[in-house]
Design goal:
- The protein has 148 residues and is mainly α.
- The protein has a domain at 19-54 and 91-147.
- The chain is built from seven helices and four strands; from the N terminus they run H-H-H-E-E-E-E-H-H-H-H.
- The protein has a two-stranded antiparallel ribbon with strand order 1-4. It has a two-stranded antiparallel ribbon with strand order 2-3.
- It comes from Tanacetum coccineum.
- Residues 58-68 have a biased composition (Polar residues).
- Residues 74-86 have a biased composition (Basic and acidic residues).
- This is Integrase, catalytic region, zinc finger, CCHC-type, peptidase aspartic, catalytic.
- Residues 1-22, 57-86 are annotated as: Disordered.
């Protein structure tokens, strides 16, 4: 039998990502990944969480050519959003979306600990460390429980 809070959480599952339950990080992780995959550019959003943000890089504009045929270039500068191709803009936008999705479903106390991060991968990794333990396997966690 489900509780009212389970029913409310299930009712909102199509429109909002699942709220993090501190006692079950692995389940939340799986559910939020499924939620993201169902979104437009979901694979790009997951890529942002798993691999880090898209790097804008640098560019140089062409000023012209010399009489000898050499190309004259401006000094190198950081690329801006306007410099990106349509594909790159989708990846950049997915980074922003990934950060928003992950942050909006964290409890306030966890959000306060990691709100200085603006990159989805850093947020995701910190939540994982806080709740899932570092690199402990399931067997390691079970053995620790038995000892205490």
């Amino acid at each position: 039998m489900s509780s009212n809070s389970d029913d409310i959480q299930a009712a909102g599952s199509d429109t909002r990502p699942p709220m993090l339950d501190r006692t079950d990080y692995e389940s939340w992780s799986q559910r939020i990944r499924l939620y993201i995959r169902g979104k437009e550019n979901g694979l790009l959003i997951l890529q942002s969480i798993d691999q880090g943000p898209f790097e804008l890089g640098t560019t140089r504009n062409t000023l012209g050519t010399t009489p000898e045929g050499s190309v004259l270039l401006e000094p190198e500068r950081s690329r801006a959003y306007e410099d990106l191709s349509d594909t790159e803009k989708k990846r950049y936008d997915a980074d922003v979306r990934a950060t928003n999705i992950v942050l909006q479903r964290l409890p306030k106390d966890i959000y306060k600990l990691i709100n200085h991060n603006i990159k989805a991968k850093a947020i995701w990794d910190n939540v994982k460390i806080l709740l899932a333990g570092s690199e402990l396997t399931k067997e390691d966690r079970e053995s620790v429980r038995i000892l205490y």
